[in-house]
Design a protein that fits this description.
Structural class: alpha/beta
Order of helices and strands: EHEHEHHEHEEEHEEEHEH
Distance between the termini: 16 Å
Number of helices: 8
Number of strands: 11
Number of domains: 1
CATH superfamily: Protein of unknown function UPF0759
Shape: globular
CATH architecture: Alpha-Beta Barrel
CATH topology: TIM Barrel
Largest sheet: 9 strands, parallel
CATH class: Alpha Beta
Helix content: 25-40%
């Protein structure tokens, strides 16, 4: 049985409340990424959603993390928060050209997050997916689609994502639809239902559950008990690489939640 890598992480690394429950007291802020990258195995970069970063910043981030660590990068809102997605070509080029290829082997999937009000338009979404390239400056690109409107629970959306090899983000969220259909050679999950009154965000039984689900994904399966729109994808003999983030919800608990899940895996 082949088991592909499982990366478990958090959103960003600059968050003041983590300085009293995650980062060692007195740790310089300039070393927070270096420390976080040795406690979890992935970080979802959120700052790229709001503004372009310098090429030098991407290079420094890559130099600060150990081998095997992965960054996923949230795409610019100027690409996804628009009425006509087919017109996002210039924004996509600007976003991808800012220097993300400097991450090299540390670059994981690009996260394309859509507004909760964005509804599924088959033709427009197909045109958008056709704009997403497979490489940038010689570095492979993988794409994950976070849709947050019920209209995307449509078999046509599943087919589109599969045709383009893009993953549909699975959300464990009280606010957004959960679409567990596997449409790429990797899985992207965002667990967003952590609780402040739970030291590890999720209770032990829930962490056990998600560890089992992540293991099933990595072995190439479509786990039972999740919400699927279309027929479940056939098992992949080579497994599927998994990117799983403890994010939003009770953000103060995210590092503890990620570490607890890593221990179970």
């Amino acid at each position: 049985m082949t088991r592909a890598p499982i990366h478990v992480g958090i959103g960003g690394w600059t968050f003041a409340p983590w300085r009293d429950n995650f980062y060692p007291k007195g740790l310089p802020q300039a070393r927070e990424l270096e420390y976080a990258a040795r406690q979890v195995t992935a970080i979802e970069v959120n700052g790229t959603y709001y503004r372009l970063q310098s090429r030098d910043s991407f290079r420094k981030w890559a130099e600060a993390v150990p081998p095997g660590f992965v960054f996923t990068v949230k795409a610019s809102r100027y690409c996804t928060n628009r009425r006509v997605l087919a017109e996002a070509g210039e924004g996509i080029a600007n976003f991808l050209g800012q220097g993300i290829a400097e991450l090299g082997d540390a670059l994981g999937p690009i996260l394309w997050q859509f507004m909760p009000t964005k509804q599924f338009d088959p033709a427009d979404f197909a045109a958008f997916l056709a704009l997403l390239p497979r490489e940038q400056d010689g570095v492979r690109l993988r794409h994950a689609l976070e849709v947050r409107h019920e209209s995307f629970k449509d078999p046509r959306f599943i087919d589109l994502a599969r045709d383009h090899g893009a993953a549909i983000v699975f959300a464990d969220s009280p606010d957004y639809p959960a679409i567990a259909d596997l449409t790429a050679d990797f899985v992207y999950a965002r667990l967003q239902d952590a609780r402040e009154d739970e030291a590890t965000g999720y209770p032990p039984a829930a962490l056990d559950h998600w560890a089992k689900v992540a293991g099933s994904w990595s072995e190439g399966h479509s786990p039972q008990g999740l919400d699927y729109v279309a027929d479940r994808a056939p098992a992949s003999a080579s497994g599927r690489e998994v990117f799983l983030f403890m994010i939003n919800g009770a953000k103060r608990r995210a590092p503890a939640a990620a570490k607890a899940l890593i221990e179970r895996l």
